[in-house]
Amino acid sequence: MGDFMRSISFEHLISWCLEEYKTKASVFGIRKDKFYVNKSRNYMTDVLGDQLASPVGPAAGPHSQLAQNIITSYLTGARFIELKTVQKMDGEEIRQAIKKPCINAEDECYNCEWSTELTVEEAFAEYIKAYFAIKVLAKEFKISEGNDFAYNMSVGYDLEGIKTKKIDNYIEGLKDASKTEIFKECYEYLSKNLDLFENFAQEDLNKISPKVCSSITLSTLHGCPADEIEKIATYLLKEKKLNTFVKCNPTMLGYEFARKTLDYMGYDYIVFDDHHFKEDLQFDEACTMIKRLLLLSKDLGLKFGVKLTNTFPVDVERNEVPADEMYMSGRALLPLSISLAQKLSKEFDGKLPISYSGGADAFNIEEIFKIGIQPITMATSILKPGGYNRFKQVAELVEPHLNSQYQGIDVEKLTILAEKIIQDERNHKSYREKVRSRKTESELPLFDCYKAPCKDGGCPIHQQIPEYLKLVSQEKYDQAIKVITTDNTAPTILGTLCSQPCREHCTRLDYDKSLSMKAMKKIAADHAQENLMRNLKKSDLKSNKKVAVIGAGPAGIAVATFLRRNGIKTVVFEKLDQPYGIVKHIIPSFRISEEEIKRDYQLALAQGVEFRFGQPANYDIKELKKEYDYVVIATGAWKKAPSPVKEGKEQIVDALEFLWNAKKKNKVNLGCKVAVIGAGDVAMDCARVAKRAQGVEEVAIVYRRTETYMPASQEEINSVKKENIKIYELLAPIRYDGKILVCEKMKLGDYDASGRRSVKGTGQMVELAFDSVIGATGAKVDTSNFEKNEILLDEKGRPQLTNAFESNQENVYIIGDCRKGPSTIVQAMADAKVVAKDIMKKESIKDDFIRYSIEESEQTIYSKRGILEEVKKDQREGNRCLKCDQICEICVEVCPNRANIMIEVKGFEKSHQIVHIDGMCNECGNCGVFCPHIGNPYKDKVTIFWTKEDFDLSDNIGFLRLDNNKYLVRTETGNIVEHIVGDSKISQELEQILITLIKKYEYCLENAIVKS
Ligand code: SF4
Ligand code: SF4
Ligand code: SF4
Question: Which of 262, 512, 587, 593 supports an S-S bond with 267, CB 3.0-4.6 Å?
Answer without folding.
Answer: 262
